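This part of the workshop introduces the protein records we will be handling. A record pairs a protein's sequence with a compact description of its fold. Backbone structure tokens are a discrete shorthand for how the chain folds in space. The question running through the whole workshop is how a given chain folds. The record below serves as our worked example for the rest of this section.
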Amino acid sequence: MIYKTKVRKLEDRVIGKTKIIVVIRFYFLNSKKPIYCLINSKILFMQLLKDKQVLIVGATGSIGSRTAQLLAGSGAKLFLTGRNTEKLQAVAASCKVSPECCFALDDAQPGSINKLKESYFQQFPAIDILINAAGIGIIKPMDTLDETDFLNTLNANLVTPFLLMKAFLPAMKATKTGLIINIPGVLGKVPMAGAAAYCASKYGLVGMMQSIREEVKRTDIRITNLFLGGVDSAFWDTIDLKVQREKMLQADEAAKAIWFLCQQPGSGVVSEMVLQPFNHQAI
């Protein structure tokens, strides 16, 4: 740990060179003076994405598609899934991903995750990163929320992630390394009126992943939950709720957060990240 003046001097010496340094400011308890921690390539370095084998579930959504483009631009090897075949082909083309590395996933069909697993491992020998950007949002008060809505929400937002873990976690355990990113959103931490089904699925997802983290904590498998506030995306197109979409996060901002999380340092893990709009900070 070094003080700010020393950090500035060191920054001056490395600007324009290949070494990358990161300065993190934090505070000790009961101290008003910030401490600056220097992290360089000898102590803590960000993981490079080039040639990383990445599975993106939900690659046709606003966040998933932009994430795919960012990772492709960083040299990652992508395998993409999505419900809409035409959108999936368009995203794959923009990322220069071959048709063999795409899978039209209908998680409502029994056995679809096992078929995805087979298709994935026909193309890649291992999995480095799994990003689950899929899910559905049903926002209804209890008066109109029916059993079908509730079960469909649980299936898409909780059962499908469970099946993904059953399919791909063993491969990560075999290498004792990997990164799993889920997006519970802020409604996986704080409730909202009319979101009984959605909150149930997202709270369940958080609890499940925290439990799995305990099972793999003696390995280098990282599990990260991304708690996003409102994102201006197609999520809101079918929801009968007055919202100010112009004040929400943009999908590009959410994708950049995922892209950042994919580069976590080898000696640490970001267990949680919260990203929310200025005008509506629920956490």
Q: What stands out?
A: Helices lie at 4-14, 62-73, 85-95, 112-123, 147-175, 196-215, 251-261. The first helix runs from residue 4 to 14.
